[in-house]
Amino acid sequence: MNQAATSSIAVRSARWARENLFSSWINTILSIVCIVLIYNVVWGIFSWAILNGVWEAKDRRECFAILGKDENGIPILGACWAGVRVWFNNIMFGRYKDGQWRVILGFLILIIWLIPLWVPGVKRKFLIAAGAIGLYPFLAAYLFLGGERSWFMSFMVPLTIINLVYNTTDWVGDKVFRVSLADTLRWKLVDRIIPEKQHTYALMALFAVLAVIVGYLIRGWGLDHVASVRIGGFFLTLVISGFGITVGLPAGIILALGRRSRLPVIKALTVTFIEVFRSVPLITILFMATAMFPLFMPEGFELNKLTQVIPAVCLFSSCYMAEVVRSGLQAIPKGQYEAASSIGLGYWQSMGLVVMPQALKFMIPNIVGNFIGLFKDTTLVFIVGMFDILAMTRAMSNDVPWRGEFHEPFLLTAVIFFVCCFTMSRYSQRLERKLGGQYK
Amino acid sequence: MDNQPSVSEQEGHVASVVSSEVIISLKKVSKYFGDFQALNGIDLDVHTGERIVICGPSGSGKSTLIRCINRLEEHQEGDIEVTGVKLDENLKNVDKVRSEVGMVFQSFNLFPHLTVLQNCALSPHWVQKMAKSEAEKLAMEYLNRVHIPEQADKYPGQLSGGQQQRVAIARALAMQPKVMLFDEPTSALDPEMIKEVLDTMIELAESGMTMLVVTHEMGFADRVADRIIFMDEGQIVEQNVPQEFFNNPQNERTKLFLSQIL
């Protein structure tokens, strides 16, 4: 019985190979050529990177010495991972040396915040996402940069933490113990005193009061200041593209609505804005932001590079996003607008409740495509002298002990980019399938 | 035709009580699409509780007429007043009128991303500012009235055309409007589904709702209408009670239309 099953698998794969690879003479030749090619490439990379990889060395010269030469006197090829190991920290964090735990903690918090969006059946996903966009940046900014807290930050940081704790306890409690904190608060406690309509406001007020109290309690506690120029490597890439993505979508929606507006002034302004920034390369915008912008500023007024580059990237991404959103809006039939008006919804309500949710569904592939493009485009910031992941990779190749070592760090960078972009792309496909299935 | 309040006594006719109160009044209303004149000096008074069926050849301006009443189309000349509110550039007035006037479209226009219940609860929750639970209770009541409470949690795409149109009626009713407009509500339906929608509309008529219906369903018109209006080329050509309208049409164009449709 068991043997029959195995043999049938063997038979089936043999049949599959015969049908698909060796169905004719030409196919057979092509298949063999391809198999040999693939074998050579894969084996070549494998033996270079893994079999002959050198993991311990003090510089590149030592790598070569360890690899040695074969019997014909030709140097043996092998990856010198020792250099990448030494530089790995710089490639990831740039010159952010002390307190890297803060960076890691910051991204862990973001992941914890976003997990519920992946979990099916979690309620109020929109509020969770809105919190991540609207509040998280303040917490992250403080974690990454530290320093003296203004009264605003003393309020926002605890507020963000409270929001995260509330969200997380709510959805974990709901999933694991079937007890929703939000529902308990609403129905068991608050509903007795406050009418349902005002629950959201009551909750917001509660958070605000708690934030003030917590902010007061932790007033003596703080993080050391880190200069923003120290932010670099993959960390910088994530910060810039993170801003570009999270600002780009909402700003793009506003711009797209402006472009479709019936008010001529708003329409003209947004059209000009979008067209100007879309027809200029990102490099130019970056140069303008860092080189020309300070010329218009009063003397002594100095912005750091990060705060010049981030708005530039955001501008660029929101203009591109605006066009994506506009195409999505055009896919919504006129009847939907009319139906929304006919039941008395105003402009913003029909946009927010009826049009946008449907349009965003059509747009997911394009939006994520843009995100991926932007993520890769942020490597251009090295041109204005910022040390993002690509610049760090090049810096390693120019470092004296490792001079000329290109393949290894660039392979690492390529793998990192691939993992990020592939994840985004898979997630968008999943989202698309899920939302697409919902309607039918 | 007799514009006085009247109690209809026709056989099989849905009993109606038409009050003398004018709820919609159109005076010399004209509407242009570019050079094309869609409505040409329309005068019309609709009384509370009155059921009016509007018919006419395609392109005669019937849909445009009722779409002007909740300002999905803007008229250029004349005055339209709905429940005493004048329709003009003032958006507050437009919003006010729209919250009093329900509309049912030929192509349903349900919101595909929301469940049936959410479709119906949208306006009570967001426009009338009811609490969500209240709004859903109300929506459920109206889904019961159109006899599809069991579909409440499905998405519109999962329903048949007839069911979708009944949901659309429930969605419009959930605003608790004073007037209901129907823009060819059965034209996009398969024949076997027309009846369920017409039955729902007849029940609505029995409840005393003021209705303006653009339709080619002459059986429905005969049974429900207090007045039938025949339009051609943007004008009201003839209007009468159903019996007179069908048995004794006055205008040549009406006669031609009836001979083609019956």
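qc> Chain A touches chain B through 24 residues (CB under 8 Å).
qc> done
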